[in-house]
C-alpha cells in the first residue's frame, strides 16, 4: 500500500523549528542558537532556557546573561573547554602595576614560604600539595608567576555559578580550576586585592556554605590570614564588608582585619 498523493495546490506543512533566537543582556543582542546546543550542556539548562525564560515575538529574552559568557558557553558545548587568557598580553596594554619580590609576589610562593618556615596545618599542606601537583610542580620548586590577567576572575566565577546552578558539572570543575589558577599565580598587588574581593563577594552571595568554590576561597583566606603578606588586601574596605556579612570570614580574619 502506498500513501496517497497530496491534492494539487495544497501547501506542505512547514518543517519543525530547529533553532531559536535569544536576546542576550540588557541590550538584547540577538543570537540564533540550535535547540540541541542547550541539551549538550545539560537537560536542566535546556529546560530553563527554553521553558522558563520569557518570550517576545517568538524570541527568548535572556536579560540575566552577558555576551562574553554566552560565547564561552557555545565554545564549551562544542569543545568541552574554553579559552580565557591567563597571561596578560603586554603587547596590547603594558601592565603598569608593581611586582613584588618572592616570596611575597604571589599566594602560591607565600604559602610555600610559610610551609617551609612555619608549621601549616595538615589541611593547608594537603591543599597546597594538591595545587602544586595540578600545576605540574613539586613542592621544592619556586614558581615564577607570570603577569596574570586578573580581569578573568569574575568570568570564571560567573561560569562556575551558572554551571552549578544548572547542573553542568564538567564546566563547574573546569571553571573552578581556572579560577584557582589565577588566584594562586597572580601578583599580590592593590589591583588584584580589589578584584579578588569583588569576586569573593560575588561568589559568597551566590553559593551556600558547603559549595566547593566557596570552601576553596575560605581555605585560601586561611593560607594568607595575616597582613604581612598582602597589606593591600587588609587595607581594602571590601574585606571588612565581607567579614561583616559572613561569619566564617569574620572568625578567621577578624583580628587581622581590625589591626590592619
Question: Which strand order spans the largest sheet, edge to edge or round the barrel?
Answer: 2-1-4-3
Number of helices: 12
Quantity of strands, as a count: 4
How large, in whole angstroms, is the Cα Rg?
Answer: 24 Å
Average pLDDT:
80
Elements, N to C (H/E): EEHHEEHHHHHHHHHH
Please give the largest β-sheet: 4 strands, mixed
Shape: elongated
Uncertain runs are: 1-9
Report, as a whole number of angstroms, the end-to-end distance. 88 Å
| Proportion of helical residues | 40-55%
Main structural class:
alpha+beta
What fraction of the residues are assigned to beta strands by DSSP?
A: 5-15%
Report on this model:
- It is elongated and about 65 Å long.
- With 260 residues, it is α+β, with helices and mostly antiparallel strands.
- Helices cover 53% and strands 7% of the residues.
- It has a 4-stranded mixed β-sheet with strand order 2-1-4-3.
- Helix 11 runs antiparallel to helix 12.
Q: Would you spell out the secondary-structure blueprint of this structure?
A:
Blueprint: E1 19-24, E2 29-34, H1 35-41, H2 43-52, E3 55-56, E4 59-62, H3 67-79, H4 107-117, H5 122-134, H6 153-165, H7 169-185, H8 190-205, H9 212-223, H10 231-235, H11 237-245, H12 247-259
Helix pairs in contact: 1-2, 1-3, 6-7, 6-8, 11-12
Amino acid at each position: 500500500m502506498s500513501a496517497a498523493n497530496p491534492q494539487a495546490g495544497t501547501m506542505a506543512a512547514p518543517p519543525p523549528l530547529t533553532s531559536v533566537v535569544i536576546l542576550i543582556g540588557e541590550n538584547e543582542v540577538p543570537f540564533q542558537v540550535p535547540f540541541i546546543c542547550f541539551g549538550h550542556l545539560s537537560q536542566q539548562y535546556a529546560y530553563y532556557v527554553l521553558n522558563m525564560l520569557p518570550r517576545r515575538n517568538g524570541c527568548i529574552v535572556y536579560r540575566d546573561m552577558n555576551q562574553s559568557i554566552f560565547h564561552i558557553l557555545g565554545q564549551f558545548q562544542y569543545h568541552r573547554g574554553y579559552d580565557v587568557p591567563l597571561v596578560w598580553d603586554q603587547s596590547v596594554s603594558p601592565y603598569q602595576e608593581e611586582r613584588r619580590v618572592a616570596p611575597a609576589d604571589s599566594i602560591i610562593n607565600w604559602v610555600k614560604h610559610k610551609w617551609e618556615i612555619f608549621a601549616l596545618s595538615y589541611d593547608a599542606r594537603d591543599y597546597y600539595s594538591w595545587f602544586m601537583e595540578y600545576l605540574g610542580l613539586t613542592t621544592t620548586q619556586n614558581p615564577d608567576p607570570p603577569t596574570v590577567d586578573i580581569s578573568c576572575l569574575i568570568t570564571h566565577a560567573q561560569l562556575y555559578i551558572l554551571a552549578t546552578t544548572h547542573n553542568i558539572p564538567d564546566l563547574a570543575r573546569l571553571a573552578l580550576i581556572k579560577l584557582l589558577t589565577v588566584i594562586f599565580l597572580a601578583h599580590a598587588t592593590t589591583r588584584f586585592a580589589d578584584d579578588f574581593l569583588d569576586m569573593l563577594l560575588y561568589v559568597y552571595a551566590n553559593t551556600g556554605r558547603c559549595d566547593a568554590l566557596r570552601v576553596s576561597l575560605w581555605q585560601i583566606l586561611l593560607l594568607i590570614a595575616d597582613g604581612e603578606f598582602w597589606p593591600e588586601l587588609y587595607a581594602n574596605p571590601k574585606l571588612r564588608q565581607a567579614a561583616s556579612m559572613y561569619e566564617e570570614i569574620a572568625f578567621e580574619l577578624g583580628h587581622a582585619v581590625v589591626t590592619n
